[in-house]
Structure formats: structure tokens, C-alpha cells
User: Fold this.
Amino acid sequence: MSSKWKIIQIISTGCCLYAMINQCCSERKFYISLERPVIDFTDPKSVTNLVVKSKRLSRSDPVHYLTINLTTMVTFDKQFMVYFAFYELLSNVYKRSFVEWHNNGCEFLENDILLGSALRAVYYKYNKDKGPLKCPMPPGNYSFPNMFISLSALLDKFPFQQGRVFVNVSRVRSVEERAFCGHIDFQIKSFRADRYGANNN
Assistant:
């Protein structure tokens, strides 16, 4: 083998090793990819014009961003309860898991780390003159565009990678009245922070 081909082989091997090391050592950022949202029920006395969409913003960005638009007809406060129930996808069947939690309306708006944190971030981004999202939330038109749900510290320890999450929001007074409910499919994915981090901080 000529010295020229040896040099080319060494350079090619070096490039492959560099790419492998770079890919292995790069920090990976976990996120929930939310797709195919479905609204199963809405009570027009509590909420109207509810639209939930999930989409990628560009081919170069792997994340599906969540947009929620709605009109609330009543004050959203601690009389409301927000329930999350996670189902695992097993052999093409969604089976309920042990992962679920619930918050009252105020805890959800101000402290929830799953969807509540994304709502707060996007609301403040587009409504800085109104200040942060707080409880009680008065009736009105609300738009939460292009929300990104990261949660790296939680998702790398999540018990399964793919499933469906059911969301139920109810108003609890003398009796519990369902305000709206729906579901959305999810996958826990990751991307290289050095490649996509600029768009998803």
C-alpha cells in the first residue's frame, strides 16, 4: 500500500473516531415529544374555543412544540383540579401505569413542573407587560404557542418511553363537574444539546 493511501486511511480513521467520541460525549437533552392531541370533551360553561396542536417548527429541529388556545368562561382557581394519568404503550395497547398525579388549579398554574412550567414560560414571554401567570386566572382569551417541555432531570428516569397521557380538568364545588378532558400521545426522546440547544434553552 502506498504512503498516500496510508495517510488517507489514517485521516479517515481519525475522523470516524472523532465523530464517535463527539457523539458519545456530547450532552443529551431529554424532552417529551407530544403528538396527535385529541379533545374528548369540553363544557361550554367553563371553556370554549379550545384548540390543541402539536407540530415541528422546522426540519432541523426534532422537537414537537405544543400550542394551546382557549377561552375560559369562569375564573380558574383552586376550585379546579387537574389530573394526569399516564398509559404505557405495550403491544399496540395502551395500559394504565402507576404514574399519575393531580394538582388543584393554583398549584398547577404556579408550581406544576410538567405542563404548568411551559405555560408559565410562554405566557410571560408574550405577556411581559402583564407579569407572570398567576392564580386565580380571570376569564378571557388565552394563547400558549410553541411550548417546549424539557424536564431532563425527570425524563431520563421515567419508567417507560412511549405511551399516552390523559388530562382531565374538573371544577370541584358541591359536586365535581368536568370542564374538559383529552389525551395526547408521547415519546421520551433526546437530542444532542450542542446541536439543538440554541433553539431549546
Remarks:
- The CA atoms of residues 38 and 183 lie 5 Å apart.
- The longest strand covers residues 176-192.
